[in-house]
Amino acid sequence: MPKYAIEHSEIPTVAIAGTDATFPVRRIYCVGRNYAEHAVEMGSDPDRDPPFFFMKPNNTVIPDGANFPYPPKSKNVHFEMELVVAIGKGGADIPQSRANDHIYGYACGLDMTRRDLQLAMREKGRPWEVGKAFDASAPCAEIQPASDIGHPSAGAIWLKVNGETKQSADISDLIWNVPETIEYLSGLFELQPGDLIYTGTPAGVGPIVKGDLMEGHIDGVGHITIKVI
Questions:
Q1: Secondary structure class of 188 (helix, strand, coil)
Q2: How many angstroms separate the CA atoms of 166 and 162, rounded?
Q3: pTM value?
Q4: SS3 breakdown of the chain: % helix, strand, coil, rounded to 5?
């Protein structure tokens, strides 16, 4: 056993449906503006430019049913409902035709965003971490193994806040689908088991306040419920 100079944190994990085993989270990659209508609402061109990515620390994951603490230094925190891909087999330069072989499973997730801070950084050409990589910013429901559900490429994705539908689309609307995303991302980084990919959010993102209840769903994948405190 290695001897550490200081106390270290345990590896963050996500529950796996149908088992008491958990999925250890290594890195969290997020795809930016991967639905055309969301790109438009964020003031960007919806053309099929190469995908771009940002990251969240692995310890920003919180489970389905958890409370989301409204983060400090922001007055405009947004929800972003997303399909999450869990990588079970690593690799670099993975072709689209082999991408599914590297996927362990899928989950419902939320890319929580301090929008005011993100936009302030964007306007100055600075990194987005303060807007995207804060504590508890990556809620993720249990992972459904691909061996059980296959590899969904179509199906409704929606999010409700206090029972009111805010986002509604289909994962087939992704500008860059999952195999294409894996091919491109694995050309930039060598993917490893334990990586999560948040694949982007549909249009309709908006603010939450303390007391709100967020409920998200993806057909064939599952459901996630998070309360803002």
A1: helix
A2: 10
A3: 0.95
A4: 20, 35, 45
Name the residue type at position 133.
A
Rounded-to-integer distance, Cα 54 and Cα 225, Å: 24
Structure confidence at residue 35 (pLDDT): 87
A 10 A CB-CB count for 85 gives 28
Q: Which of 152-156's residues contact partners 24+ apart within 8 Å by CB, and which partners?
A: 152/83, 152/106, 152/218, 152/219, 152/220, 152/221, 153/177, 153/178, 155/218, 155/219, 155/220, 155/221, 156/217, 156/218, 156/219
Q: What stretches in the chain show pLDDT beneath 70?
A: 38-48
Q: Is 6 exposed, middle or buried (CB count within 10 Å of its CB: 0-12, 13-18, 19+)?
A: exposed
Structure tokens at 111: 């890319």
The pLDDT, as a whole number, for residue 76 is 98
In this structure, which amino acid lies at residue 96?
Q
pLDDT 10s digits, 178-200: 999 999 999 999 999 999 999 99
* Cα gap 105→26, rounded to integer Å: 15
Give the pairing of strands 22-24 and 13-15.
antiparallel
Q: How many CA atoms lie less than 13 Å away from 201 in the CB half-sphere?
A: 21
